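ENTRY TYPE: paired fold submission
RECORD: A
CONTENT: sequence, then structure tokens
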Amino acid sequence: MNDKYAPLFEPITFRSGVQLKNRIVMAPMTNFSSNPDGTVTDAELAYYARRSHGVGTVITACTYVTQNGKGFQGEFGADSDEMIPSLRRLASTIKEQGAEAVLQIFHGGRMCPPELVPNGDVVSASAVQAEEGLPPIMPRAIPRALTESEIQSIIDAFGETTRRAIEAGFDGIEIHGANGYLVQQFFSPHSNHRNDSWGGA
């Protein structure tokens, strides 16, 4: 091995005191394998067990923080306390292999298929339909602009999901703010046409 790569295999300690056995991180990768009720499957646990051995940290695939934030079929949930046992199984599986476990959390916003959210009520920063892109998708619904109180509720839901992650044994969380999902929808001038404190020039 080239000596310049040796630091990748050295432990690192963060200011918080958390120590990683090395600097190699498994990036979050969607696997579309969860149960319809949002709980993790044995197949998912086997997937993570196989990939968690040897790396310092594993970041899971994204999990939705509210019922109306589910972005795709086969995604696991963290939107209620009833999901904590499922999340605990996932965290334990990763940590048993010697890696730190990080839960990636998100809200799909206007990218959510209407059939996956209550009453088909797709929401976003503004009522702007997503453009078709990759991977190939069916035309998206025109979302409803979130009210200010709903925005605050979703922010609170991110906090509650973080609490559940802690209770389930995860070592950290990662907020998914890319790929056209809700956090990015608020930052994008394409999807955010608001003129209140949550948008505007």
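RECORD: B
CONTENT: sequence, then structure tokens
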Amino acid sequence: MRAGRWALRAFFVVSALLAGLRLTLALVEAAASGAGLLEGIRIAVLAAIALGAIAMIVFDFSTRLPQARWTARALFVAIIAGVVVDTVHEGFSALHLIAVFQILSLVSFQTVTDERLRRNERFSAPWERPSDLGRRDYIPLNFFNGFWVFAVASVLGLVVEVVWRLLTVGEYQDRAGMLWGPFSPIYGFGALLMTIALNRWWNHSKIVIFLVAGVIGAAFEYAVSWWMGSAFGIVAWDYSGTFLNVDGRTNAGFFCAWGLLGLVWIRLLLPDVLRAVDAIPLTWRAVVTTTAALAMLVNGAMTLMAIDRWYARQAGEAPAGPVEEWVDRTWDDAFMEHRFQTMTLDARLSTR
């Protein structure tokens, strides 16, 4: 354990140095071109990432582990926010692979320091009052159950969309949102946000859960639509002209759909998902989860890189180096249009 914690500090030292490099480059760029609102937000987020990485170096994991865990969670959110802001500002580049390394550092931290890999402290029947009335949390919120919530919901969400289209239109359409595998990450992140938000509201009325899930889902759907359009000129859905739509990015119908999905997720599916994960022998669970998380990170990074080159080709930008040339050969326009059948890309819609 001691050797593992020293290795963690080495990871966070490298992570802090890389964060400092990203922050320095952003400051130089801002000084050269002038800092607008988006550039200011970008610098603030990069500074928060650098400070968080430094904090993870100086924490004594033996005596300040709870504080270190909260810092790690905040750092994870800041890293994701940094990628979101960066892609809107300048697209996705090889420098963003730094974020992959930083997230891997956090995954390693969770693996080494989590002494309660067993997640059987959960309510298997959230519609019933427990005997322990003082307990508020529905499930422990840690990296392990968080990752599997994301992964399973990404698959289930894709299945729901495909089946719904078959039933309503009579047509099969690939609704995948990543280069590899049957994953729709909008459902994965949506389920993760709902699980976090409702973790202490699990035994509230069905109406409360429905409304909270609907608000989270609709707001997240709006944010994702705005981000894809601003960063890459992508339109994946357009609800213009529908009842109570908001800029065509979400509407009343999908508010209700998200609310219903959230209710089903919290009340019916989540306990069984964690029970299935708990069936993995404890000695293998960290290895399986960490490996799967690494594969998902690589999948996400390569997806963003392929989408960015799809945008760049439409914008008339030649590949800058052998990596981008390889991406262009491997995932050309025909492949991207077939893989992401619900997306249309128009570089003129981007705000870059």
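NOTES ON RECORD B: Residues 1-113 form one domain. The two ends are 46 Å apart (CA to CA).
STATUS: closed
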